[in-house]
Design brief:
CATH class of the domain at 108-171: Mainly Beta
Shape: flat
CATH architecture of the domain at 108-171: Roll
Structural class: alpha+beta
Oligomer: single chain
Mean pLDDT: 78
Strand order of the largest sheet: 4-5-6-7
Helix content: 25-40%
Distance between the termini: 60 Å
Radius of gyration: 33 Å
Number of strands: 7
Strand content: 15-25%
Number of helices: 5
Length: 174
């Protein structure tokens, strides 16, 4: 098997990346976190007295404070009122109103009539389960959906679309 020039370049790059990954995982050791970097992230008055470079012992786990409690402490220290904070996970009132609106179920006859007025069959290709139809300039394959109706079959001069128990027969204009 001969490789083209671009394939050889890709292989060479892959080899270099693999060697670099191997060296990184086996020979290079990660450096311990520096306390000086953390000094800028957390003010000294709020920092827990923890020795970052001390090895962890197998003794009892250090005292852990829940995040919620820490947030409450920070709010108290800075004089913030947590009751005025908006819940980021609460759905919008507009969404809630939309979900409470009653859904009107349309009569199948009206649905078919509206669909037939809104869409025009321009062409059909193939037939049966292997065909396709062009409706309003859009090519639909069997199984694709248009306004909630799925194209289920194509005839010589027609296309059948269905939504649940409702079927629509679009025919080519004369």
């Amino acid at each position: 098997m001969t490789l083209t020039k671009s394939q050889r370049v890709y292989v060479a790059i892959m080899v270099i990346v693999m060697v670099a990954l191997l060296i990184d995982r086996t020979l290079l050791q990660p450096e311990p976190a520096q306390a000086s970097v953390l000094q800028y992230a957390i003010p000294a008055s709020e920092r827990d007295p923890v020795d970052l470079e001390a090895p962890r012992s197998e003794g009892p786990a250090p005292r852990q404070v829940a995040i919620a409690r820490k947030l409450e402490q920070i709010a108290e220290q800075r004089g913030l009122d947590p009751t005025g904070v908006i819940d980021a996970f609460r759905p919008s009132p507009i969404w809630l109103q939309a979900s409470e609106m009653p859904v009107e179920i349309e009569q199948p006859e009206l649905l078919v009539e509206r669909f037939m007025k809104a869409h025009t069959l321009a062409a059909v290709m193939g037939s049966g389960k292997d065909g396709s139809a062009i409706v309003d300039g859009r090519t639909l394959l069997i199984g694709q959906v248009l306004d909630g109706f799925t194209l289920v079959s194509v005839g010589r001069r027609s296309a059948v679309l269905e939504s649940g128990d409702t079927r629509v027969l679009l025919t080519l204009p004369d």
